[in-house]
Predict the structure.
Amino acid sequence: MIEALLSESQRALRDEARAFARDDVPRELILDMDAGKVIYPRAFLEAAARRRLLGLRFPAALGGRALGWRDEIVVLEEVGVLGTALACLYSLPSIVGEALACFGTPEQQARWLTPVLQGRLTVAEALTEPRGGSDFFGTSATAQRHGDAYLLKGQKRFIVGAEGADYFLVYARTRSDGDPHASISMFVVERGPGVHVEHVYGLLGTRGGGTGRVIFRAARVPVENLIGKENGAGEIFYQMMIPERMTSAAGALGLGRAALEVAARYSDRRKAFGQKIRAFEGVSFKVAESITLLDSAASLVHAAATAVDGGDDPGRVRRLVSESKKAATEASWAVVNHAMQILGGIGYTGVYPIERLLRDARLALIWTGTNEIMDLVIQHEFYRELGLSSSARDIEADAPEQANEGEKVFE
């Protein structure tokens, strides 16, 4: 975290988050999650709730602190040092809460959001399907209305938190014809008949977060569980991209910082050829590059948070949050690889946490939209902005032969 970017209140909030990560998360929990001994750490979320660290952006009346994204990313980075499983579980109340806070009724917010922020209920977002995750609007799960309820059929997979969630936020197709972007609805689906959770995934990293497959076999979902309008989940989906990508970005900063600090301390103690290895450019330059990567990504994440908090142009917000997710996760991946190289063979063992952080970091380039999808969004929004009227200088005219007739041929 770049200290100059933080206000006094944000530094105090950071210290709260650091105290939580230091004092409320036992070393044994992290080790047991990675070893498969803990499948879902509900106590972790309950501890965060006791410190009022969940859903910081939501109104105090709902259990939040009425803060902004610039505040929330400060806490997210500190939780990120714990690894991606805990960071993702911590982020779910913010992600799922976005839909309820922005599109839910007061009754829905009181029933499903406040208990989550208080640590009494846990949640998961059911988005990805076996046929793929990037093609969101191609979802095949269906919800057909029958009287006062919908019958939900289909399945979702790679759902972090599935094993322990009390309810799921589910996207399903509610119209078989017409524009796919106007044929999907969102529901709160509580555990119960027809909802089958299968913890089936042996993951490379990000273990212990209860990642599983959820199958809906004609699950009955009351009409009052519809969030927003029927066939209106496209609007919700685009809004949800903000918390999904901002949480991924900020958490990745914390993971990268953790790896850098371990490697830098090691390089200041380990000796070879009669001197500390930090004296060798092959090591010190990797440390310098890691610092620069993380500081650059952190600056971008803070800029995106400022844009969201300030109500900037929605297209520009989409671009900035996508850039942030891409930049922060790729920086984290590069930094943890540098750390592995600095530690050498000992980094490839369980003596240091670098091998676990490396396994964790790889998933961040895939989830909440692959970084290739981020590229699509970034360039699309940039071209849109490029086509808008501008008062900036026309740089294209600053060429000696720019007016030569017949030279600028485009077809």
Remarks:
- The chain has a mean pLDDT of 95.
- The two ends are 48 Å apart (CA to CA).
- The chain has three domains: 3-121, 126-231, 234-386.
